[in-house]
Amino acid sequence: MNTHPRLRIGHSACPHDCPSTCALDVEIGADGRIGRLHGARDNSYTAGVICAKVARYAERLHHPDRLLRPLVRSGAKGAGAWKEASWEAALDRVAEAFLAAEARHGSEAVWPYQYAGTMGLVQRDSIHRLRHAKRYSNQFDTICTNPAWTGFVAGAGALRGPDPREMARADCVVIWGTNAVVTQVNVMTHAVRARKERGARIVVVDVYDNPTMKQADTALMLRPGTDGALACAVMHVIFRDGLADRAYLARYTDDPAGLEAHLATRTPEWAAAITGLPVAEIEAFARLVGTTPRTYFRLGYGFTRGRNGAANMHAAASIAAVTGAWQHEGGGAFHSNSGIFGLDKSELEGHALRDPSVRWLDQSQIGRVLTGDAAALRGGPPVAAMLIQNTNPANVAPEQRLVRRGLLRDDLFVCVHEQFMTETAELADVVLPATMFLEHDDIYRGGGHQHVLPGPKLVEPPGEARPNLFVVEALASRLGVAHLPGFGKTARALIDGMLEKRGLGGFDQLCAARWADLQPDFETAHFLTGFGHADGRFRFRPDWTGTAAPNRPPDSMGPLGPHDGLPAFPDHVALIEEADAAHPFRLATSPARNFLNSTFTETPGSARREGRPELRLHADDAARLGIAEGDRVEIGNARGAVVLHARLSGGGRPGVVVAEGIWPNAAHERGEGINVLVGADAIAPYGGAAFHDTRVWLRPA
Ligand SMILES: Nc1nc2c(c(=O)[nH]1)N[C@H]1C(S)=C(S)[C@@H](COP(=O)(O)OP(=O)(O)OC[C@H]3O[C@@H](n4cnc5c(=O)[nH]c(N)nc54)[C@H](O)[C@@H]3O)O[C@H]1N2
Ligand SMILES: Nc1nc2c(c(=O)[nH]1)N[C@H]1C(S)=C(S)[C@@H](COP(=O)(O)OP(=O)(O)OC[C@H]3O[C@@H](n4cnc5c(=O)[nH]c(N)nc54)[C@H](O)[C@@H]3O)O[C@H]1N2
Ligand code: SF4
Ligand SMILES: [Mo]
What we know:
The chain is of the alpha/beta class. It has 3 domains: 224 residues, Rossmann fold (3-Layer(aba) Sandwich); 189 residues, Dimethylsulfoxide Reductase, domain 2 (3-Layer(aba) Sandwich); 116 residues, Barwin-like endoglucanases, CATH 2.40.40. The protein contains 25 helices and 25 strands. A 6-stranded mixed beta sheet has the order 5-4-16-15-14-6, covered by helices on one side. Helix 10 packs antiparallel against helix 13, helix 10 packs parallel to helix 15 and helix 13 crosses helix 14. It binds ligand MGD (2 copies), iron/sulfur cluster and molybdenum atom. Iron/sulfur cluster binds next to loops. The site of iron/sulfur cluster (SF4) has 12 residues, from loops.
């Protein structure tokens, strides 16, 4: 604490793509450098705890490899030869290329591409205003939340749930398909409090022996993509043994009799064969949740990153409706609070400028889009120019070979605005240096909790790094749209507008208060006043093509996923990439503790702790294949192959392999990363990327 001269503490929020959105206390020295970051103790969700990689943020913010000046490519694409340029010259070059692409193919040939490298509303979403003003192609977001949100809302009708802090007052916490110790550490704060204070049991449902599994009182390790089967067998037992809350079912659900009849054949034996779990474990889990009214189901994203993922989310959420857990404090199912905030982004995103006839392109299919796949281009022109902010698709997107081939096209112009020379930036024509969260103003919403938090500018940016909003505004003026509504405002003015409309005062007021707690009241959060559907009932029979889904693609986009494969009631649907003789293993690409997607791979503290890309496999499989600990193993399928080092502990069931972390492509022997293996075909019903649903062969390398 005292390594910095005249230390002061600044208040902020973590900007990263993590449901925890921690409230932060930042040490700032008189020299303008930051020290350690701490979790705010008086924030009731953060409760003083943050992850280690963000506590070490000084490593990232003051990193010697930060981009400091605009760069223009001076050799072949990807060759690594750059010339420094002034901001004026670099922006002129980008605007020129955008106008040329538009003149040649029409405005849809320009595709602004962004994601959630920062979750700040202003710096993340202002790019849409430029997009709409210029009628550039839209991006349909599928890479992360789509199947999870669609599945949850198919049942509950809204994206919210019991106060996440109530986990501490549960008698059983089921952590399902989220590696919370790694991906959202605060879930554990509240779950462990329940265990300490109330003797609550913690159940973990995952596909491998990860750090969250190690915390479990009841550890359920199933095969990837089989959660629907587990959920059905649990509900079967609950009905069978008279543990269903029939009064609740009659009052709050659509078709309990239909569900019960449907589940008659979904026995624990049936589920055991699909999931790989012993019958006794399924029976015991069912009895536990069936006899524990205060059971809090904390449903994550991981188990929805498969081709049946939306259906599996719906099935898991359905259990809480059969037991009536939703009625009780500390009970119910929670996935995300993203539906509660009601901040109006229409000015920020330029909704009034939107032309509904402009095409939508699937974010996850960027490889197909850039390599001219007619279906992916939705009948429109090729993409000839891009502005990329807050994402690293050359590394994180599926079908990586196509992504790289596309980005290397000589007739494609790419501008990447970044904090580091990422693997996407390396393939660009122009690279612009970006600020980090402590260097600009923004506000943040917590998906895993209920706070809106401000993140004011606390320190000066290094070199010539500038915020995303600056780039959007500077391009808007060069492209002739800066006079349109929403442009020409500061981040603070845009934030004031959103907060005032929501009755939260303005940015200064929120900074003084440090956060606003927007948790809906108990009745609303627990759906006691009705679920989000028009009839107020939880749907066991989802309308998979319904309008309620927050992620429903615009009709103009046409069908995205195969709707017809989805079940009428909760079920196991065999839409996944099942193992076969040629590809006997199922691969999950789960997150690494010290990385956050592709971020933090550049910080020495994180890279050192993670070591090298490894493949976790079962010792029996390894023995059969003659693979020893640390050996090089090659895994592959029709999309490609990569080499990793074998790790025989901490894996999943036989036939399941896990590669943790989105390592830089360059960290692998052949310069290609794990996403070479992952497909970009859409998850039913509304798209998504099946990152944990890949079949592979495996051999000693
Ligand atoms: N340290 C760290 N934190 C992160 C991230 C990171 O990369 N690293 N990423 C951030 C982002 S963008 C997001 S969206 C969130 C996601 O956070 P989570 O909701 O935790 O989702 P995932 O990280 O995809 O996967 C969670 C777990 O699901 C498991 N899983 C895979 N397939 C199945 C299955 O079929 N069934 C079950 N039951 N489990 C399965 C994986 O093995 C993994 O342990 O985390 C955020 N936080
Ligand atoms: N194999 C595999 N692949 C996956 C996943 C998986 O589980 N397995 N998870 C998927 C998921 S859930 C997600 S969400 C995606 C996420 O993938 P990405 O969107 O690439 O995620 P991040 O690494 O969070 O952020 C990308 C970049 O944003 C930059 N950035 C941060 N703040 C700013 C800013 O203010 N301005 C600008 N201009 N840039 C900024 C960072 O430097 C970083 O390089 O990856 C997906 N890919
Ligand atoms: S747990 Fe998530 S929100 Fe909290 S500091 Fe770490 S990355 Fe940020
Ligand atoms: Mo994500």
